Amino acid sequence: MKKQVVVIHGGDTFETYEKYLDFLCNYEIDSLDYFKHKGWKSILQEKLGDDFEVIRPQMPNKINAKYLEWRIWFEKLVPLLNPEVILVGHSMGGIFLAKYLSENNFPKKILGTFLVSAPYDAETFEYTLVDFVLPADLKKFEEQGGKIYLYHSTDDDVVPFDNLEKYKKQLPSATARVFEDRGHFNQEDFPELVQDILNIAN
Question: What are the beta bridge partners of residue 84?
């Protein structure tokens, strides 16, 4: 049986529909590259190899994400998964997994959860988190999330680096990987993540 890796992508969320429309009208796009699917998530299957099955669900309206909608859609996927699974969340996908696993019992065994540049709160966050706000503690997540890895870069210009420190306080058993030059991890390759997944899957 192949080892399954579920990757939850990032997104944005807005407090009102008007703010969402304002973003759509005023956001500057100057290259077709913006519309192309590329980067480490798209080649993760290739890097992990044939022993793995990488599943990348397209979460509802990632440009104006709503937690309830993401939860409903995610729960459509869960019954179809193998008894053991690995979870990866990038940015908004990371806080989604942290919130979901802190508030719900996950029916499968989680070998590991990998949060990449995940926001923790909006105190120093440029954008709002609306209904993606985390609960007061993440104990349930730590108990059922398997081996937890946290990745953040000091030069992240989207999610401030201090969000990593907040996760570390709530998740003392987690392994933190700190980088200095990865920004928001919108990169072509992510060898450290690949190796960590391989390590816990063996």
Answer: 109
Residues in the chain: 202
List the single range of 62-66, 125-129, 147-151 with lowest mean pLDDT.
125-129
Dihedral sign for Cα 119, 125, 131, 136, please. Answer: positive
Going 116 to 178 to 187 to 80, the CA torsion angle's sign is: negative
* Alpha-carbon distance values, 31 to 34, 36, 91, 188 (Å): 6, 10, 22, 17
Instruction: Specify whether the backbone of 146 is left (phi greater than 0), alpha (psi in -120 to 50) or beta.
Output: left
pLDDT digits (tens, 9 = 90+) for 114-137: 999 999 998 877 778 999 999 999
152's CB contacts (< 8 A; 6+ apart) are: 117, 159, 161, 163, 164, 176, 177, 178, 179
3-201: in CATH 3.40.640.10: no
Domain ranges in the chain? 3-201
The continuous run of DSSP H or E covering 34 comes out as: none
Q: What pTM, to 2 d.p., does this model score?
A: 0.95
